[in-house]
Amino acid sequence: MAQSDRGPVPPYGPPIQEAIAKGDLAKMKQLAAEAEQHLQQAGDVGAALEYLKIEIAKHEHKSKK
What we know:
Elements: H1 3-6, H2 14-22, H3 25-42, H4 45-63
Helix pairs in contact: 2-3
């Protein structure tokens, strides 16, 4: 899937590390606000992923019968 098909990219990893390394307070605050907004919209991704893995396993088990 192309990046433009997914919508905005969460502000993780390199952008955050770069802002910290540069000491760019304005950018750090901007990224923190964007990350907070993303987390509010995404909810508990870790729990959702675990649930998804359980459902995948159930469906794979059913298809083997």
